[in-house]
Design brief:
Layout lengths: L2 H11 L3 H18 L8 H15 L7 E8 L2 E6 L4 E6 L7 E5 L5 E3 L3 H7 L3
Antiparallel strand pairs: 1-2, 2-3, 3-4, 4-5
C-alpha cells in the first residue's frame, strides 16, 4: 500500500473523532510534508506521517487496523478490532519511527518489526 492508502485505511477504521480529524489533517498535509514544504505543520502531524511512512516501508498490511490512541506525543497505538492485536510506533525524533510493544510488566520495549511487536504485545 502507498502512504495515502495506508492513511485512508486507518481513517476508515478509526472510531475516535479526534483521531479521525488528526488523520484527515495528516492526509491533507501529506504531500507538503513529503516535499519538505510544510513549515506550518505541527510536530504531531510530522510524527504521524513518520508512522505512516514506516508502515509503507515495512510493507505491512494495515487493512483492518485503526489508530487507537496517542497517549503521549511520541507514542502511536494501532489496534485491529477483528483480531484484538496491537502494536505501537514511537517517534522520539522526527523522521524516525520505531516499532514497540508493551510487555507483561507493562514496560515499553523495542521490537525488530511491526510483526514482532504484535507477537510480543501483552494486552
Amino acid at each position: 500500500m502507498k502512504k495515502n492508502e495506508i492513511a485512508n485505511e486507518l481513517l476508515k477504521n478509526t472510531t475516535n473523532k479526534y483521531l479521525k480529524e488528526f488523520l484527515s489533517n495528516c492526509i491533507a498535509s501529506m504531500q507538503q510534508i513529503d516535499e519538505n514544504n510544510c513549515s506550518q505543520c505541527s510536530e504531531e502531524l510530522l510524527r504521524l506521517n513518520d508512522c505512516i511512512t514506516y508502515i509503507e516501508s515495512s510493507n505491512f498490511n494495515i487493512s483492518g487496523w485503526q489508530l487507537r490512541e496517542v497517549p503521549i506525543y511520541y507514542a502511536h497505538i494501532f489496534y485491529n478490532e477483528e483480531t484484538g492485536k496491537m502494536f505501537d510506533l514511537d517517534v522520539f525524533d522526527i523522521g524516525t519511527a520505531m516499532p514497540t510493544y508493551i510487555d507483561s510488566n507493562s514496560s515499553e520495549r523495542e521490537a525488530d518489526s511491526i510483526e514482532d511487536a504484535i507477537d510480543r504485545y501483552c494486552i
